[in-house]
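DM from R.C. (forwarded with permission)

"hey, sorry to bug you on a friday — could you get me a structure for this? deadline for the figure draft is monday and I only need the backbone to look sensible"
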Amino acid sequence: MRRLKVFVINTIILTLVSLLIQSTGMIFDIYLANVIGSEGIGMFSLVMSVYFLCITLANSGITLAATRLVSEELAINSKQGAKIAIKKCVFFSLVFGVLASIILFLTSPFIVDIFLHGRISVNVLYIIAISLPFTSVTMSLSGYFTAVRRPYKNSSADVISIITKIITILLLIPKFNISDLNQVVILLVLGTTISELVCFTYSYFLYILDRRKLNDTRTNSKNFLSRILKISMPVAITSYIRSGLNTFKQLLIPIQLEKSGLACNTALSAYGMINGMAISILLFPGLIINSIASLLIPEFARYNVKKDFKKMNSVISTLFFLVIIFSFLIIGFFLMYSDEISLIAYNDINVGMFILILCPLALLMYLDHIIDAILRGIDKQVKVMYCNIADLIISVILIYFLLPVAGIAGYLIVIFVSEILNTSISTYQLYKATHFKFDLIKQFIIPCFCLIISMIIASSVHIYNNNMIFELITNAGLFLIIYLFFITTYLVISKIKNIRIF
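My reply, with the result:
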């Protein structure tokens, strides 16, 4: 009971803080998009894809190893073992971070010339390289705080990071030429790098204070090195492949769009609209799912260690049902109000078109986050990577052959194929590992029916107002009330009829 209470409290804390961070970040991203335009967002997105590849090299699966090992040590009451585990994880993070930094320094000219169209200077990637060792260590410390059930420390570090990034960029904007694409990207990368350095300093300070609670001198655990390598190396190797393919995929998209007849700046703008604007809007409500997912890894690690498969399957079934209900709400919201959101946020109706087309994928995106977290918790992290690698290989092939022929429409098709394939394979892997039960009618068909009825009713009583923001808030609130009424009614009737939903 106490563990459930801690889990719920941590989820609420993470959700509230994530809401603050993501809301602030989203508002700032919208501000940036209006200042630097979709082309600037597109180029920055390409640079960030290189950044994420370098982060993968820098971390090499150590974050998961830190979470898993510390959780397992604490599960057998070995505080000293947990302390030793995190120290070794931090050391490995530092080593891989320095290695990734050196690799990026050496390859920056090639990456800029070949994949970034030579439109920015190598200084952009040099700035990123400086931050890699610090970011890698921060990620390991994040795994530690998750394992010891103090995720609010990660959340506070995230708050510090986003505030630092925003303040830095706002202070530097007057010193840069916003009409120069290269200077725009340098500005954004500088803000990101400085925020990562501040986040590292803050997180390490929290860790120094927190490790005093691990002063137990007893430990029966051994072979930390082999245990770290057992967890991290399979993840690292598959992560390298996955992240490398993903980066290649992102860098390939504008190149192949150009082959369809689009100019370079038009291709970057389209890429920026879809990846930097529309998909960002779709992922924003998923912060609640992300908060839950980050806490599932240590919980399912404990279920797995104790062989409590009955409890594990019950929790999986419940999570699926809740994610489906939530996803349908978000999908309905975007289906009905995508144009209004686009005009209010970006003053561009084209972004609303992409939101409308892609919003059904919200269900798969949110479910995939939960499934991946569960698989990592039950020591099936390599399976997760295999799923992602298979998805990326097929996506790269489709991008290479489809985009020159179909252009933007081809890219949208690739996104749908990728999400459907990834979630399907992950769900199958989870079923093989747990044999969880899922009632298609009670947990999917009926909630879907509730969504359709709610949308029909909400559309028929649409409230019009000269103020677009007021109109959106009013009608979205009305839709929310109607949808929750039907879902609640279904849950009550199911209970009365003694139907087991979970």
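R.C.: lifesaver. The longest helix spans residues 2-59.
me: no worries. Residues 2-438 form one domain.
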